[in-house]
What we know:
alpha+beta; Beta-Lactamase; 2 domains; 5 strands; Arc Repressor Mutant, subunit A
Amino acid sequence: MGEPPGDGLVIEELTASHLAAVFARMSGLLLSSEKVDTALKLITALAVEMVPGTAGAGISLMDRQGERVTAAATDEVVERADALQYQLGHGPCLTAWANRVVVRVDDLAQDEQWPSWSRPASEMGLRSALSAPLVAGSEPLGALKVYAAAPHAYGEREEHLLTMFAAQAAMLISNMRTVQDAERASAQVAEALRAREIIKLAKGIIMARDHVDERTALLTLARIAEQERTTLRHTAERLAQATVRRLR
Length: 248
């Protein structure tokens, strides 16, 4: 029997309402002081909540060394399944990431596309897999994947749900990375300014102590740093601290 008239519309309205609630919770992260790793863990938890039948979820991203890593996962089994994909260099998650497409595996125990991954994954208790790319603009950030303990757990509706969820997650991750990079750059600038001021102070101490000009003071500081096999900043800090102690 087909669905009674109107049932499909009700389901779509419920789905839209659920997505709106989940997206609101995700967007709220941008207004909080949560760390990136905490936010990523929440995204995986929301993925499990949003896609029916899901037992676990994970996010694969590229680290700063250019290696694929599981940035967040709901449990150890997901991490193990992901790690095997990275080790083999292929699998549904990596395919979704590379090709920017949604990839669904209905039964890992019967899969023939990636048997060297899917068979061991099924032995871990995972039978269905659904992966969606995380894309922000033209940049492929990684992939979001969900796993189920039962075969044939996902269909077109779940593909649609995960696709929309992944799009929102990619925007969030991209924005959080931008903020993180800005904070890191700001910290680096502040550190560089502090180092410059400390070196300037140390030069002043040497100029006053040895009655030399600024260039000679800098060369003296550099020579001491070389003799001590340390950085110019470290030598400057040590000199400034020693001077303060003598003046107390």
